[in-house]
Amino acid sequence: MKTALVIGASRGIGLEFVQQLLGSSWAVYATARKEQDVNALNNLKAMGIQLDVTNPSSLAGLGWHLDGVKLDLAIYVAGIYGPNSGAREVPSVAEFDEVMHTNVLGAMQLIPLIAPMVEESRGKFVFISSLMGSTAETQSSFGWVYRTSKAALNMAVKSASFDYPKAVMIPINPGWVQTQMGGASAPTTTKESVSKMLTVIDHLSIADSGSFKSYDQRQMHW
Ligand SMILES: NC(=O)c1ccc[n+]([C@@H]2O[C@H](COP(=O)([O-])OP(=O)(O)OC[C@H]3O[C@@H](n4cnc5c(N)ncnc54)[C@H](OP(=O)(O)O)[C@@H]3O)[C@@H](O)[C@H]2O)c1
After folding, report:
1. What is the pLDDT of residues 66-100, one digit of tens each?
2. Phi-psi region of 8 (alpha: psi -120 to 50; beta: other; left: phi over 0)
3. What's the CA gap between 216 and 173, in Å, rounded?
4. Residue 218 neighbours by CB distance under 10 Å
5. Is the N end or the C end of the chain the one with fewer CB atoms within 10 Å?
6. CA distances from 115 to 70, 74, 87, 131, 198 (A)
7. What pLDDT digit, counting tens, does each position of 52-73 carry?
8. CB neighbour list of residue 120: distance below 8 Å, 6 or more residues apart
9. Given this model, what pLDDT does residue 204 score?
């Protein structure tokens, strides 16, 4: 049986990853911030762990929970959007810090903890990025704090890929998805986005480590 860890699984894309992986008979560790969401994950037969990626003691607790575990797949899904404003408005320090802490620092603090567990299985460590994190494809500034955070996440993953050569480490664009963040008018369901991402993940080889992927197999430009 293969083992996965989904970080940020209370709802949306993360919860859908848990459901589809369980449906394919994976053993799934899944994290959520709130106790009731951890209980809901346990009810699905995932192994729920309480985790706030911005809380250092919570991160240390994750290491304790996963002691000795080998991971075929780890997925960093946790993320927030922050202000929708663009470059005509100054982001507050609090807004900037919260988005960067959740989307970037959380991932950077988890990589040294989780990547060795993924290397043990010659597995895959996937980070949910965004088209909005592509510098090459940027055509406007709305959501510029979020854009900046996902571009920084991309760099964190690409640079870390050199330190963990036995794992495949990639950022992936999930598309514009119907979730609390994506809104109801998004064209893609969580079911479609996650099932297509799992296909992309399934086909990854070590040569793909450090590249930027998309759910729909399109070539992503940094
Ligand atoms: N939806 C889209 O169109 C879209 C497009 C591109 C990229 N993405 C990315 O996809 C990922 C998932 O987003 P989503 O669309 O599924 O949105 P969502 O429904 O808003 O889910 C966000 C998830 O992140 C978790 N989270 C937020 N802050 C956290 C923290 N400090 N510690 C742990 N978990 C935290 C949330 O947990 P709580 O329930 O506890 O808040 C929730 O599980 C994000 O990284 C997002 O940037 C989404």
Report:
1. 999 999 999 999 999 999 999 999 999 999 999 99
2. left
3. 9
4. 11
5. N
6. 10, 8, 35, 24, 19
7. 999 999 998 999 999 999 999 9
8. 70, 71
9. 98
Kindly list the structural domains of the chain, giving each domain's residue range(s) and its CATH number in brackets, ordered by start: 3-214 (3.40.50.720)
Q: Ligand 1 pocket: which of 6, 7, 11 to mutate (most atoms <8 Å of CB)?
A: 11
User: Once rounded to an integer, what is the mean pLDDT over residues 13-26?
Assistant: 98
Beta strands across the sheet bearing 27-32? 47-50, 27-32, 3-7, 73-76, 124-128, 168-173, 213-214
Work out which ligand 1 atom sits closest to the CA atom of 190.
Answer: 16
CB 31 within 8 A of CB 8: yes
What's the whole-model pTM score?
0.98
Residue count of the chain, please give it. 222
Question: Is the minimum distance from the CB of 96 to ligand 1 under 6 angstroms?
Answer: no
